[in-house]
């Protein structure tokens, strides 16, 4: 028996670590591929306008997005203007009130970020704002891109 | 010479690869920490609270209000006179910093009010352009005020306030941005 053990100790005991970086890289790639950055599919087109007087919103957890724009249809066509909150289209503008009120109860410091397509008309934006006032979500943000001067 | 070669061969030619995994991990953590995903930028506003049924809105003197109207084509009326978007910034500054000198402009910065009114068919783009100019006017006035207090600009003044929540933003107390979004006329 003793001789048997001695034979074993003679074999190399190191675990090969040369492939470890590859394993880590594969892990990295796996996470990169599987991470979903946006959990909502936006059903309306929102080409944001550009502006100069921008403020950054650092507290992402306070934000709730509201999309207004023409609906995306099949074959790159666009339809009528619609309002979307989270994952679903809002049928009637008056529904915005109840949805936003519920969100406000959960997060009293809620900021509603309006992502409005630049060709949308003010009428619907003002209607939505009126509903937001009724709901009590008074902090809003007109989402805009930084103005690029060519 | 031959003996020298033999000696060299005996040394281990392998590069230690054990730390490679740690390096890769460090890289992974570095990128995890430094990536920010899509920070939202925009123009912040606070809507007025819902009006009570039988409470009259407070009276505002005509001279304290700078009326900006944006029509369906995106054209601008400034105090009922045709104007352009590029003129708004100077006009807002003149209005707010008037301090009662000119009878047509505001009495004091805190009483000055900018009213933006649009038609229902006004493109959102035109409205944002106008709103942007009004905000830029305020930003420039705050910059000027900050420089008088001895700061490089308004942003550096803000960073001095960041330490405690209760600090009063003196510049914004002095020049309050009062922008009202008026309802379009009934058609």
What is the radius of gyration of chain A computed over CA atoms, rounded to a whole number of angstroms? 26 Å
- Overall 3D geometry of chain A? elongated
- State the assembly state of the protein chains: heterodimer
Counted by DSSP, the helix tally of chain B is 6
Shape of chain B: elongated
Query: Which chains have the largest interface?
Result: A-B, 48 and 42 residues
Q: How are the strands of the largest sheet of chain B arranged?
A: 4-3-2-5-6
Give me the strand/helix succession of chain B: HHEEEEHEHHHE
- At CATH level 3, the topology of the domain at 58-145 in chain A is Nucleotidyltransferase, domain 5
CATH hierarchy, class of the domain at 58-145 in chain A: Alpha Beta
Distance between the termini of chain A: 84 Å
CATH architecture of the domain at 58-145 in chain A: 2-Layer Sandwich
Residue share in helix of chain B:
25-40%
User: Total strand count of chain B, please?
Assistant: 6
Structural class of chain A: alpha/beta
Helix content of chain A: 25-40%
Low-confidence residue ranges of chain A: none
**Share of residues in strands of chain B:** 15-25%
* Strand arrangement in the largest pleated sheet of chain A: 5-4-3-6-7
Write the layout of secondary structure elements.
The complex is a heterodimer of chains A (150) and B (187).
Chain A: H1 2-10, H2 20-34, E1 50-51, E2 55-57, E3 63-72, E4 78-85, E5 88-90, H3 95-106, E6 111-116, H4 122-135, E7 139-143, E8 145-146
Parallel strand pairs in A: 1-8, 3-6, 6-7
Antiparallel strand pairs in A: 3-4, 4-5
Helix pairs in contact in A: 3-4
Chain B: H1 2-10, H2 20-34, E1 40-46, E2 65-70, E3 76-78, E4 81-83, H3 85-96, E5 113-118, H4 124-148, H5 154-161, H6 170-174, E6 179-182
Parallel strand pairs in B: 2-5, 5-6
Antiparallel strand pairs in B: 2-3, 3-4
Structure description:
The complex is a heterodimer of chains A (150) and B (187). Chain A has 150 residues and is α/β, with parallel strands linked by helices. Chain A has a domain at 58-145: Nucleotidyltransferase, domain 5. Chain A has helices at 2-10, 20-34, 95-106, 122-135, and strands at 50-51, 55-57, 63-72, 78-85, 88-90, 111-116, 139-143, 145-146. The N and C termini of chain A lie far apart (84 Å). The model of chain A has no long low-confidence stretch (mean pLDDT 84). By secondary structure, chain B is an alpha/beta fold. Helix content of chain B is 40%, strand content 16%. Chain B has six helices and six strands; from the N terminus they run H-H-E-E-E-E-H-E-H-H-H-E. Chain B has helices at 2-10, 20-34, 85-96, 124-148, 154-161, 170-174; strands spanning 40-46, 65-70, 76-78, 81-83, 113-118, 179-182. In chain B, helix 3 (85-96) crosses helix 4. The A-B interface holds A 17-18, 20-21, 23-25, 27-28, 37, 49, 51-58, 60, 63, 111, 113, 116-123, 125-126, 129, 132-134, 136, 138-147 and B 17-18, 20-21, 23-25, 28, 37-50, 118-125, 127-129, 131-132, 135-136, 138-139, 181, 183-184. Strand 7 (139-143) of chain A pairs antiparallel with strand 1 (40-46) of chain B.
